[in-house]
Amino acid sequence: MKYKHRLFTNFLAVAALGLSTAGCHSVGSPFAPKPDNTMARLNYSVQQSERDLARLKAQVEALERHSERLEARLATAEGQAREIGRLRGELLEYREDVKRLQVEMPQKMGATVQKMLTDSQTKTIAQVEKAIASRPAQALKQSGYNHEVASGQTLSLIAREYKTTVNAIMKANNLQSANNIRVGQTLFIPAD
């Protein structure tokens, strides 16, 4: 920009010099100085300076456009650098998470397996307790046998087989009727 200003100032000085020398000679005077080509040279210098100035102006404009493009690229690069920094931070967090999981997972899996075993044991115990609770109270106190009813069996045949009475079997199993037995049903047969 300083160079541009200096050229313009030189141009003005040359133009002023050309104007001031134009009115200094007299026409037809014997003592008049011989015409010289100073004015032509000054005009040529002014024209050359104008061409140089136009060329420099075009170069300055080109440099300004190039500078704007570079600033835009720089802004883009800075944005990308920030994004890379953010992504690096995320990557470090992910790596830390993976390391933590590599330590915690076996511990959690062990705890999960232990819980599954405990849940399975608890479920089995609950099923046993339910089975025990579903038996008549007398059957729990009495000694005897479990019998699975087969096809064609009646309560009287089963009672004869175990040398007990139909009423004792009905009472031990809370049966309302001797005809309410079915194939596959388990009956408690009291021993006394």
Q: Give Rg in angstroms.
A: 59 Å
Strand order, sheet with most strands: 1-2
The percent of residues in helical segments reads over 70%
Structural class label:
mainly alpha
- How many beta-strand elements? 2
* Beta strand %: 5-15%
Distance between the termini: 124 Å
- Unreliable residue runs: 19-26
Helix-strand sequence: HHHEHHE
Compute the average pLDDT.
Answer: 80
Q: What's the total helix number?
A: 5
The major β-sheet equals:
2 strands, antiparallel
- Specify the overall morphology: rod-shaped
Description:
With 192 residues, the protein is mainly α. Helices cover 72% and strands 5% of the residues. Among the domains are: 2-17 and 36-89; 136-190, LysM domain (Membrane-bound Lytic Murein Transglycosylase D, Chain A, Roll). A two-stranded antiparallel ribbon has the order 1-2. Residues 19-26 have low confidence and may be disordered.
Task: Give a quick summary of the entry.
The chain has 192 residues and is mainly α.
Q: How do the helices and strands line up, and which of them pair or pack?
A:
Blueprint: H1 2-22, H2 38-134, H3 137-141, E1 144-148, H4 155-162, H5 166-172, E2 186-190
Antiparallel strand pairs: 1-2
Keywords:
mainly alpha; Membrane-bound Lytic Murein Transglycosylase D, Chain A; two-stranded antiparallel ribbon; rod-shaped
